[in-house]
Amino acid sequence: MNSLTRRRLLRHTAAVVTTGIVPGSLALFAGPSAMKAQQRGPVGPLPARGEFVIRGAYVMTMDPALGDIAGGDIHVKDGSIVAVGKALNAPAATAISGERMIVLPGLVETHWHMWNTLLRGFSGDRHEESYFPMLVAVGKFWTPADTDLGTRLGAVEAIDSGVTTVHNWSHMLPAPEFADAELMALADTGIRARFSYGWSPLLAETEALPLADVERLHRDFAKFVNGGLIHLGLGWRGMWRFGKRSPETVYRREFEFARGIGIPIALHVPGVRNSPKVVEMHGKEGFLGKDVLIAHATWVTADEIRMLKDEESSVSLSPVTDARVGYGFPPTSELIDGGVNCCLCCAKLEPVPSLAGAPVADFPSRRQYLDAGQRVLESERIQDAGPV
After folding, report:
1. 281, 313, 278, 277: which is closest to 294 by C-alpha?
2. Are 296 and 290 in contact, with CB atoms under 8 Å apart?
3. Closest CA to 245 of 272, 282, 210
4. How far apart are CA 226 and CA 73, in angstroms?
5. Bridge partners of 180?
6. Angle in degrees, 0-180, between the axes of helices 248-261 and 211-219, rounded to the nearest 10
7. Dist CA 111 CA 264 (whole Å)
8. Is 226 helix (H, G, I), strand (E, B) or coil?
9. Cα angle value 20/97/79 (rounded, 5°)
10. Which of 258, 194, 181 lies closest to 232 in space, CA to CA?
């Protein structure tokens, strides 16, 4: 089995994304009051991005053909990286010194319920105070203004941590105004994002998602696309929820709707040891594919890993949340060795105690958790095998 290395994981989690000039964090909270977020109109255009070149940095391109470039330059024009190399000719560009610095692609976050950034640490250890019961309790009082602030704070923290692309998987959407508030907050920060339209904690499992509102957004998404930086997805509840199978009339309708309008789909797979083979369950129904992202997958079997690889579904790994709620450790090496595209996420944004003072969207600390969990799994296998 191959060992899990920083560079190996980065190849799965990092991507070169369009670079923009992002205003200072505090400036992102200026302008119209968040209390009026639900009343604001379509977002305006991004500010002019200009032209600049970062010179003399240690550039980690993550491109096998280019490799790492010591003393390298990166030329950016109108929001796009147009050249990477040494001593680039860019006389019209503003020069920014990258000496004694490492420059690498913006990190891509793949599973984050950004609205609840305001609620960090709000759930407790007792069942009645755990994450899902607390969502229901909070959902009765949550407003679009709260959603605006939580999403905005999460986006600022992401940018501050080197995360330039987020998957905002929203599951606090009791009314259209909540979705609009999240989308406008994402657009205001200038971050690249997928907004996956999910559910409300007040929605019964026997009720379908408000697909008419998803269709509204899909039809009018030009209001929110923000120069191509934001796109729409579906946060699907799937076939298996809270220890039981969901009604087929609900899960099939939701999935076929998303496939029908051509938007990507994201799905939580239970992180419980004794749950049925949920990935296999979905695969047999044709509910996997390149357009389907699986979150957690903590207890997938070898057969399910082969199924994920064959169907080209990606897996979003959440080591901190998995440990916090007691799911266990994701089988990272098995997934990667099995050819499954794996990526990192923030999920609920639990604090990361290993790095005091570090932002909780900090991916290096989450990679440390992932590596530690993998070492525990490998140690258990060695002990189970007996003396060598």
Report:
1. 313
2. no
3. 282
4. 28
5. none
6. 10
7. 13
8. coil
9. 15
10. 194
pLDDT digits (tens, 9 = 90+) for 209-238: 999 999 999 999 998 998 899 999 999 999
Sheet holding 314-317, edge to edge: 107-108, 163-170, 192-197, 230-236, 265-269, 292-296, 314-317, 342-344
CB proximity list for 56: less than 8 A, separation 6 or greater: 71, 72, 73, 97, 98, 99
DSSP 116: G
> Which residue from 172, 211, 186, 44 is spatially nearest to 109, judged by alpha carbons?
186
Q: To which residue do tokens 């009314």 refer? A: 175
Cα 284 to Cα 266: distance, rounded to the nearest angstrom = 17
CA dist 243 and 270 (Å) reads: 8
Domain architecture of the chain: domains with CATH: 48-105 (2.30.40.10), 107-385 (3.20.20.140)
Rg (CA), the chain: 21
Q: Please state, in angstroms and rounded to a whole number, the distance separating the CA atoms of residues 154 and 306.
A: 34
Q: Which residues contact 102 (CB under 8 A, 6 or more apart)?
A: 57, 58, 59, 60
How many other CB atoms sit within 10 Å of the CB of residue 238?
22
Residue 350 has pLDDT above 60, yes or no: no
Mean pLDDT in residue range 37-55: 71
Q: Is the pLDDT of residue 28 over 90?
A: no
Cα Dmax for the chain: 67
Question: CA of 264: how far to CAs of 221, 257, 344, 348, 387, in Å?
Answer: 15, 11, 18, 21, 47
| Cβ atoms within 10 Å of 261's Cβ, excluding its own | 14
First-to-last alpha carbon distance for the chain, in angstroms, is 17
Mean pLDDT of the chain: 82
Q: What is the pTM of this model?
A: 0.81
For 137, residues 6+ apart whose C-beta sits below 8 A from its C-beta are none
